[in-house]
Amino acid sequence: MESPDVEATDTELPFSTEDPYATEEPVYAAGPEGEIDQTAAEKGWETDVYEPSALVTAVGKDLVHGPEELGQSPAQWLVEGMKMEGDEKHILLLGIPKLCPKWSSAVKAAAAAKYERWFGDGTYLVSSKKADGEQTIPPGTYRAEGAMENCYWERTSEAGEIIANNFATSARKITVTIRSSDGQFTSQECATWKPVK
User: Fold this and answer.
1) What is the rounded distance in angstroms from the CA atom of residue 64 to the CA atom of residue 79?
2) Is 130 inside any structural domain?
3) What number is the average pLDDT over the span 86-112?
4) pTM for the whole structure
5) Are the C-beta atoms of residues 143 and 174 closer than 8 Å to each other?
6) Is-contact 118 141, C-beta < 8 A?
7) 3-state SS of 24-80?
8) CB proximity list for 36: less than 8 A, separation 6 or greater
9) Helix (H, G, I), strand (E, B) or coil at 8
10) Are 72 and 126 members of one domain?
């Protein structure tokens, strides 16, 4: 038996098929996170890995221990460790004061490239200017503080001859003045060296 021909007709459904929440505009979370994401989208700022607010949160958490573990000041860590530049710099300048206000001054100092440099273990070329491929330390007076066991430091000439050195088996505070005529400064198992103001 043949089926009768059925004409295709538009049948109206008894309910709407449109999503009442659909919108052409992106929807941002409420609060400071949403403000950061919205502003970044409006300005065209992007990150490779995170949403802008997630980047700010991750950097804020990393600032708690990251710089200290590397023997760097927070602003130094932002510049030298993160290569704070471009859109990420703008996102952090906007977001850190909103989500991690404790680190606002570090972000501002990093953005202005005017920050204090700290130094951990290693051998540094004594120079006021950064040298490509070399760790440098400017001449000046530096202090390492904390519980230090088996801390060794030395100042050497450009030829590597020891000018001054010390091996401290137990120390709480060590101060060293590095002169512009020194060639290198070496530190092993000491606390972080910070400029004396």
Assistant:
1) 16
2) yes
3) 95
4) 0.72
5) yes
6) no
7) CCCCCCCCHHHHHHHHHHHHCCCCCCCCHHHHHHHHHHHHHHHHHHHCCCHHHHHHH
8) 52, 53, 56, 91, 94, 95, 98, 99
9) coil
10) no
Residue 197 one-letter amino acid: K
User: Which domain-ending residue is among 77, 92, 112?
Assistant: 112
Q: Say how many domains are in the chain.
A: 2
Can you give the pLDDT at residue 19? 63
* 96 φ, ψ (degrees, to nearest 5): -60, -45
* Beta carbons of 182 and 124 less than 8 angstroms apart: no
| pLDDT, tens digit, 9 for 90 and up, residues 146-155 | 999 999 999 9
CA-CA distance, 175 to 67, in Å (whole number)? 21
The dihedral of CA 69, 70, 72, 77: what is its sign?
A: negative
More confident residue, 68 or 116: 116
High-pLDDT (> 70) share of the chain, %: 88
**Residue 57 is encoded by which pair of tokens?**
């949160």
Domain that holds residue 176: 122-195
Residue 164 belongs to a domain: yes
| Least confident piece of the model among 21-30, 36-45, 157-166 | 21-30
- The owner of tokens 């404790």 is 102
- CA dist 57 and 104 (Å) reads 13
Average pLDDT over residues 104-111: 95
* Residue 95 backbone phi and psi in degrees, to 5: -85, -35
Position 15 in a domain: no
Please tell me the chain's helix, strand, coil percentages from 3-state DSSP, rounded to the nearest 5.
35, 25, 45
**pLDDT tens, residue by residue, 172-194:** 999 999 999 999 999 999 999 99
